[in-house]
Design goal:
The complex is a heterodimer of chains A (435) and B (279). The radius of gyration of chain A is 29 Å and the shape is elongated. The longest helix of chain A is centred in the C-terminal third of the chain and has 49 residues, at 322-370. In chain A, helix 7 packs antiparallel against helix 14. Chain A is α/β, with parallel strands linked by helices and 435 residues long. Helices cover 57% and strands 12% of the residues of chain A. Chain A contains 18 helices and 10 strands. Chain B is mostly helical and 279 residues long. Helices cover 76% and strands 0% of the residues of chain B. Chain B contains 8 helices and no strands. Chain B has helices spanning 8-33, 37-65, 74-95, 101-119, 126-165, 178-212, 224-240, 251-273. In chain B, helix 3 runs antiparallel to helix 4 (101-119). Classes of the chains: A alpha/beta (435), B mainly alpha (279).
């Protein structure tokens, strides 16, 4: 039997500098899943990689405790270090691990956006779905992770539809606009430059466009995409190669590319500021890894905000939404309870099934041995005897099976009861014979 | 020094200068209805030409009476006051325009020129000292007030900028946005600095006048009040002209205006509490 195992890091355990080193875009996540199942003999896995977290959900054998579990952790860490070409010591201290019910609760909390930096944000549910779909695509999700992720998505939907968590939330985009209003008085004479076409940067851009700036410049490696966006937002498509020139005229810059290297360096930006005559500039870097070198923000009249900065500000609204948070927490707790019960049944199912089959088979065997000794027995009586034997077996097994089903609620881990049941009733022998 | 009443030519010259100022104001007001490069040129040309004409008239009159101190003469004192005001207003509109500044200041300057023309032939020359002292007080204190505002707003700018850098939007800055604060500070300096300049010049000339009459000693010119006032003037001159040195804007300009504020406070203390300060 296998249980859920989670290994990951998030915005509360790892700073932005660490997260950007190990972050995976959608293509990389899919490649990681494929590589993982290739390396670990088709072990189940779902990789959830967002701006705020990187989490590996896997299936760990029940027998793996203590050293066995630690060995598994080391293997997964080593895999990630190799895949991202990042030394393990960079990110290993930021990792957390959870198993079984705790792992399920964590995922449900994440899908409900209760663990997000921006409480109530709706993107995370789509990201969880994407991660699950990617694993399904390569056959990496199995009997352990299928029910987990399907229920996680159901939890997320229920939380968003039945609570006010998503309402009144302060989004990253709205925080970016608020900061812009703290820097600039009017926008009708300002130029906005957008670099890249990530979902988050488009959200921010949409909010900035509502301020009606004088000019909107759209910059993208793919000029066709830039042209499409320029048409959509009534802007101008510009070349990425002339980025420095565009930065000179831009008062607000939104950058959200998938570039592994910083596009805007300190050296480049010093020249830009000189040419801008040191007019204030607002840089919004929502890429991971970052598009703008952090040292750019140290210059005078340069206001640089990265994803963490904006999200932390958005998070500040969390205290004001206690009721919605509480309601969401109750939904999550109920789903954890239901999932755990269903898991118990799932794990018990084969054992109970084997128990019933064995004893019904024995009862039938004994009945057939006794039948020839019973003379002049009618068909109806024969039927009654079979029913008697069947009911006897069910009655005998009823109490132990009921106790087994309620085991986690009453005494200890289900695994121990299953093991005891298998030993007492010799169910493992039968399983071996069947194989 | 000869008593010298202005000639008819000089009076006509000064009235012409006043008329040119009025024309400049008219063209400037006209631009608010119709944006026109021609009106802008007319306003600038009339304004500066009025300064040239007025200046020439005063120089001629001073040469005629054999004295350069304007306080000795109604014509010169009133005329010089008007020309100084007009010069400062036109300068500010040229380097850092304040909407409507010339609409307010140039008519006052024109009135002073008209006053010079009317009272120029009046004896004795009492208006000189009266007008001069009022000009000095109003411009010195008015300029100081505007510069204090500039310094205070500069302090708010620094606080707002600090909060922005600390990414503390959640707590709210409450100080207004940086661009508006910078604009207010620049406008306050744009108004305050020329006023303060006039206040400084009229004060120094008044001091020379009193010294020449034996009512004051020359060492008072090097007293804390004047020295600090000159220091303030230099600081705000730098802060006001930061666009010329573009790296000196935003936070740096705000720091400079704050330094000016501290010096201004020192000047005001020196005026009130130090020897020779209360004039």
């Amino acid at each position: 039997m296998q249980r859920i195992f989670l290994l990951g890091l998030n915005h509360t355990t790892a700073p932005l500098e660490v997260r950007e080193k190990v972050a995976l875009n959608s293509e990389q996540a899919l490649a990681a899943v494929s590589a993982f199942i290739g390396k670990f003999n088709n072990c189940e896995i779902v990789v959830l990689s967002t701006c705020n977290r990187l989490e590996f959900y896997t299936a760990l054998p029940d027998e793996a405790h203590g050293d066995g579990q630690q060995q598994w952790v080391e293997q997964v860490v080593g895999f990630l270090a190799d895949f991202r070409q990042v030394p393990a010591e960079v990110f290993a201290p930021c990792l957390y691990q959870k198993t079984g019910e705790a792992a399920a609760e964590h995922l449900f909390t994440v899908a409900s956006s209760l663990d997000s930096m921006v409480l109530g944000e709706t993107q995370i549910l789509g990201q969880v779905r994407q991660a699950y779909d990617a694993s399904r695509q390569v056959g990496a999700a199995g009997p352990v992770l299928h029910p987990l992720f399907q229920r996680a998505m159901a939890v997320g939907k229920q939380v968003h539809s039945q609570t006010s968590l998503a309402e009144g939330r302060v989004s990253v985009a709205s925080v970016a606009v608020d900061y812009a209003k703290r820097i600039f008085d009017t926008f009708s004479d300002k130029t906005v430059l957008s670099i890249g076409a990530g979902k988050m940067s488009l959200l921010v851009l949409r909010n900035l466009v509502d301020l009606k700036p004088k000019r909107l410049l759209i910059c993208n490696r793919d000029h066709g995409k830039a042209a499409t966006l320029a048409e959509q937002f009534d802007g101008e498509a510009v070349d990425l190669e002339k980025l420095a020139d565009h930065l000179v005229s831009a008062d607000i810059v939104v950058s959200g590319t998938g570039s592994e290297q910083a596009l805007i360096t300190r050296a480049m930006f010093e020249g830009v500021m000189r040419r801008r005559r040191y007019k204030p500039v607002f840089l919004i870097d929502i890429a991971l890894p970052r598009d703008v070198e952090p040292s750019v923000g140290e210059a005078d009249n340069v206001y640089l905000y990265n994803l963490d900065d904006l999200q932390k500000t958005a998070e500040a609204s969390r205290e004001q939404r206690g009721e919605a948070t509480e309601a969401a927490g109750l939904i999550v707790a109920e789903h954890v309870r239901q999932f755990t019960a269903a898991e118990r049944v799932r794990r018990l199912g084969p054992t109970i099934d084997r128990l019933y089959r064995r004893y019904h088979a024995w009862a039938q065997e004994e009945l057939e041995r006794a039948m020839p000794k019973l003379t002049n027995i009618s068909a109806n009586e024969k039927e009654q005897l079979q029913e008697l034997v069947r009911r006897l077996v069910n009655k005998v097994l009823h109490d132990p099976v009921r106790t087994l089903r309620q085991s986690d609620a009453l005494h200890g881990p289900t695994a121990q009861y299953i093991h005891a049941m298998e030993m007492l009733f010799q169910l493992k022998e039968e399983e071996g014979q069947k194989d | 020094m000869a008593e010298n009443v202005p000639s008819s030519v000089e009076i006509v010259g000064l009235v012409t200068a006043a008329g040119l100022m009025a024309a400049s104001v008219g063209a400037s007001i006209g631009r608010s209805w119709k944006v026109s490069a021609l009106l802008k040129t007319v306003a600038a040309v009339c304004g500066w030409f009025s300064i040239i004409v007025g200046g020439a008239v005063l120089v001629s009159h001073s040469a005629g009476r054999g004295g350069w101190l304007p306080l000795d003469d109604n014509f010169d004192s009133l005329g010089a006051s008007g020309l100084m005001l007009a010069t400062c207003a036109l300068y500010i509109q040229a380097v850092r325009p304040v909407g409507g500044l010339d609409w307010v200041v140039l008519p006052v300057a024109a009135l002073l020129l008209i006053g010079a023309a009317v009272f120029g032939r009046t004896l004795p020359h009492e208006y000189g000292e009266t007008a001069w002292s009022w000009t000095h007080r109003l411009t010195a204190y008015g300029g100081a007030l505007a510069l204090v505002i500039a310094g205070a707003v500069g302090a708010l700018y620094l606080l707002a900028a600090h909060r922005l850098r600390a990414k503390g939007l959640a707590s709210g800055s409450g100080f207004g946005n940086l661009e508006r604060l910078e604009t207010i500070a620049q406008h306050a300096m744009a108004l305050g600095w020329p006023l303060f300049t006039i206040g400084l010049v009229t004060g120094i000339l008044w001091g020379i006048h009193l010294t020449s009459q034996g009512q004051s000693e020359s060492r008072e010119f090097f007293g804390p009040k004047v020295m600090l006032a000159v220091g303030v003037w230099i600081v705000y001159a730098l802060a006001l002209h930061t666009p010329i040195n573009p790296s000196f804007r935003g936070r740096k300009a705000a720091v400079l205006s704050l330094i000016g504020l501290v010096l201004m406070a020192g000047t005001l203390v020196a005026v009130q509490f130090m020897p020779g300060g209360t004039r």
